[in-house]
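Saturday, quiet lab. Running sequence design on the structure tokens for the scaffold JK sent over.
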């Protein structure tokens, strides 16, 4: 049985919390509770700070886009996806190995010099 989540007090934080996957949501809930208790902040303030922390660690929660670094035919490539489960099945189907889940902005900046062109799968 799933544990029901507390509905955040701020509507914007509640909307963002709805976008989180179960692990991210658990991190948010835990962080909000810790901040509220340890810092003695009101719940709404603690939730806002916790959401900022979760979005800093998981920016894909805000964009809905995840980036997987993969190895295919001896080379490193990056796969953008809005569906991690499907992407991981795709990697297995084409014989690629997942190396890591990455931050989209960092990949574009570091690997593509700040600009990347997307093409469709052939």
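Result came back. Writing it out in full:
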């Amino acid at each position: 049985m799933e544990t029901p989540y507390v509905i955040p007090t701020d509507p914007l934080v509640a909307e963002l919390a709805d976008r989180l996957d179960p692990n991210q949501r658990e991190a948010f809930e835990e962080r909000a509770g810790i901040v509220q208790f340890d810092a003695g902040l009101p719940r709404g303030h603690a939730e806002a700070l916790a959401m900022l922390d979760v979005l800093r660690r998981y920016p894909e929660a805000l964009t809905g886009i995840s980036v997987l670094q993969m190895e295919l035919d001896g080379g490193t490539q990056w796969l953008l996806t809005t569906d991690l489960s499907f992407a991981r099945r795709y990697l297995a189907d084409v014989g690629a190995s997942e190396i890591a889940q990455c931050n989209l902005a960092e990949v574009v900046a570091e690997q593509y010099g700040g600009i990347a062109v997307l093409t469709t799968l052939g």
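Notes for JK: The radius of gyration is 18 Å. DSSP finds six helices and three strands in the chain. Ask whether to fix the surface positions before the next round.
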